[in-house]
RNA sequence: GCGCCUGUAGCUCAGGGGAUAGAGCAACGGAUUCCUAAUCCGUGUGCCGCAGGUUCGAUUCCUGCCAGGCGCACCA
């Protein structure tokens, strides 16, 4: 599509006294394929030419009627638009050949120029179970990691574990009051979670527990041996549990720098803030006044000397800059923390760090039940493990029913089951809240990962049956694709690079996810109307090249969403 | 009270100054001598939350309002 645009740009630019780049940026895709493939709107010319746009469109079409386009067949005026139709032979050959040549690299680029992009994602709170709420950060973050990598950035996955803070005081108190060593050994994470919930129930009757918890956290921050000992055990037990989930999801992090990692930097952060004179003491606490900037003030140090979340986040931000000198620094964290990040970035700016503008909060909506928000404290939560297992089980059942002779049922069930869960989090705009619904989470029809994976598997099946002699590039075969279903599929395949880029620039993997649905839909229409293996020799070769390119696009796209593309299912 | 986000078909959601506003689900009806029917084709539905404003043109941009969600100093 890019070459077509460039050609139109060169052609039109001198006739409308604009730069080719300006013409290209004006081009749009008509709402209806029958109107054409690219449209040049003439509204902008109306003022300078003092003519109504429809007349300009007609005149332009006459002016260029003698020109022969390489990639466009004809240019037809329609109302205020000049509509260009692609020349199927040249265009199809061009697109398919690019995919053929670049293969796994198709859609990738070097725009990132190796710039470091630390991505803070997943980042669960230690000693709390990994619920479906965390999966959004994990899945979206991981996809952004892969997408940035594909654009030539050096992605750096950081699991900013919530392994510090008052919650550890609470856990220690709960464990000392009600803890049972045997139960802890048995099922550590769920047991710690039980204690956490119990603490919050009990504190309503015994408010003193809160003070006790605060004091234990104070001890922890001051290196009390017993406190540190508890902390170490709770932390390690939780980590072991998370790693099982990450392994299942195929995710690895470059760094497991939790909040505790920044403890030794906190004094320096406080010093820097004092040096710049933006902090002040208030009722014994250290504050930064953000009121002049339209934000609530933040507290860096409590009156008892303990630090807060934002203090550690400041340390983390500075650490990331000093370590990675990043091109961008992403925080894939829930929308409920938007204010926190506004405050964080504002403080960085007040500290005079020009790189503050390169820090980006990538927020996402909550997962909710029909009757309200999930809450770790209240024990209202669905475990991710359970969702993943049920999803895989459901996929297994469907395979048993539809394709009982499949050789690798287990592999396919895993790919489809995990893909469904991931896709559910990726296909809608991330800022919207999601209502958790088992039926929807386990539905494999319609706009789902399975729809895309199925198209991929069907293509693989056809390619397996085709002889080896078709596994070569052939110019003339690739030029034969002129049916509507073929052209429309080719045009969709041409969009992958744009979609990957757009996903990165807006930090929205949903753009890529939705695009892959379009690819699969276009393929299915083609598949139902155009026989491949039963076609006449040269056309058969051309169609094999087309579906081979389609397979490549789906495989490349799904890979960037972290979803497997099985060859059979 | 203040701030941020959301409001599009019965449901879940795409789209995003311009050409008749689109998918999936659900409902109903069709398609398999043929490459896996997890598919495809057809049928119906919209004060694009409300009211103003900018514009040749607004569902899209601006302002106000309404509704829902989230957040607002010793949690993370």
Note down, in words, how this protein is organized.
Helix content is 55%, strand content 9%. A hairpin with a 2-residue loop joins β6 (279-282) and β7 (285-288). It starts with a helix and ends in an 8-residue tail after the last helix. The mean pLDDT is 90. The chain is of the alpha/beta class and 569 residues long. α1 (2-16) crosses α2 and α10 (208-221) packs across α11. A four-stranded parallel sheet has the order 5-4-9-10, with helices on both faces. It has a three-stranded antiparallel sheet with strand order 1-3-2. A three-stranded antiparallel sheet has the order 6-7-8. It is built from 23 helices and 13 strands. The chain has helices spanning 2-16, 20-26, 43-49, 53-63, 88-102, 132-150, 166-178, 181-186, 188-202, 208-221, 225-249, 266-275, 309-324, 338-350, 384-402, 409-426, 438-441, 449-465, 475-478, 484-493, 496-505, 509-529, 537-561; strands at 38-41, 72-78, 81-86, 116-120, 154-158, 279-282, 285-288, 298-301, 329-332, 359-362, 367-369, 372-373, 434-435. Among the domains are: 2-86, Arginyl tRNA synthetase N-terminal domain (Gyrase A, domain 2, 2-Layer Sandwich), CATH 3.30.1360; 166-250, no CATH class; 391-561, Isoleucyl-tRNA Synthetase, Domain 1 (Orthogonal Bundle), CATH 1.10.730.10. It binds one RNA strand of 76 nucleotides through β8, α13, α14, α15 and α18.
What structural class is derived from the secondary structure elements? alpha/beta
Fraction of residues in β-strands: 5-15%
The chain-level mean pLDDT equals 90
The Rg value, from CA coordinates, equals 28 Å
Low-confidence stretches: none
């Amino acid at each position: 599509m890019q070459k077509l645009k460039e050609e139109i740009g060169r052609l039109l630019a001198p006739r409308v006294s604009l730069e080719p780049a300006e013409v290209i940026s004006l081009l749009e895709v008509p709402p209806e394929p029958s109107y054409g493939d690219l449209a040049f709107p003439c509204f902008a010319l109306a003022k300078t030419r003092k003519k109504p746009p429809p007349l300009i469109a007609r005149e332009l079409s006459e002016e260029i009627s003698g020109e022969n386009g390489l990639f466009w067949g004809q240019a037809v005026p329609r109302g205020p638009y000049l509509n260009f139709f692609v020349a199927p032979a040249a265009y199809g050959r061009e697109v398919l050949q690019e995919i053929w040549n670049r293969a796994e690299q198709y859609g990738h680029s070097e725009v990132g120029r190796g710039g470091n992009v630390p991505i803070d994602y997943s980042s669960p709170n230690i000693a709390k179970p990994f619920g479906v709420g965390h999966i959004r950060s994990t899945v979206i973050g991981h996809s952004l990691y892969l997408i940035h990598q594909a654009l030539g950035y050096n992605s750096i996955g950081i699991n900013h574990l919530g392994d510090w803070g008052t919650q550890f005081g609470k856990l220690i108190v709960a464990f000392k009051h009600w803890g049972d060593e045997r139960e802890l050994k048995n099922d550590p994470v769920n047991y710690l979670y039980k204690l956490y919930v119990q603490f919050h129930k009990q504190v309503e009757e015994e408010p003193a527990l809160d003070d006790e918890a605060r004091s234990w956290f104070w001890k922890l921050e001051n290196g009390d041996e017993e406190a540190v000992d508890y902390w170490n055990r709770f932390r390690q037990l939780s980590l072991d549990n998370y790693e099982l989930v990450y392994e299942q999801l195929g995710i690895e992090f470059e760094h497991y720098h939790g909040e505790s990692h920044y403890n030794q930097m906190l004094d320096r952060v406080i010093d820097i803030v004092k040096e710049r004179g933006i902090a002040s003491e208030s009722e014994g606490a250290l504050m930064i006044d953000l009121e002049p900037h339209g934000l609530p003030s933040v507290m860096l140090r409590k009156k008892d000397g303990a630090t807060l979340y934002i203090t550690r986040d400041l340390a983390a931000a500075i650490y990331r800059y000093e370590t990675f000198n990043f091109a961008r620094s992403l925080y894939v964290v829930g929308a409920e923390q938007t204010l926190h990040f506004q405050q964080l970035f504002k403080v960085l700016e007040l500290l005079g760090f020009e790189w503050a503008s390169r820090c980006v909060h990538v927020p996402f909506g909550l997962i909710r039940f029909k009757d309200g928000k999930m809450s770790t404290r209240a024990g209202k939560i669905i475990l991710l493990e359970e969702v993943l297992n049920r999803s895989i089980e459901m996929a297994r059942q469907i395979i048993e029913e539809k394709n009982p002779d499949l050789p690798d049922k287990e592999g396919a069930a895993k790919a489809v089951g995990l893909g469904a869960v991931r896709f559910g989090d990726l296909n809608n705009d991330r800022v919207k809240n999601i209502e958790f619904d088992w039926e929807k989470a386990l539905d494999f029809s319609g706009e789902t990962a399975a729809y895309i994976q199925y198209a991929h598997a069907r293509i693989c099946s056809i390619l397996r049956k085709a002889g080896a002699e078709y596994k070569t590039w052939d110019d003339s075969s690739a030029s034969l694709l002129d049916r509507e279903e073929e052209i429309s599929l080719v045009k969709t395949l041409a969009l992958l690079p744009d979609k990957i880029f757009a996903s990165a620039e807006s930090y929205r993997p949903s753009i890529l996810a939705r695009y892959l649905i379009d690819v699969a839909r276009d393929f299915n229409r083609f598949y139902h109307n155009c026989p491949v293996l039963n076609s006449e020799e040269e056309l058969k070769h051309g169609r094999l090249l087309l579906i081979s390119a389609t397979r490549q696009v789906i495989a490349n796209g799904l890979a960037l969403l972290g979803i497997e593309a099985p060859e059979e299912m």
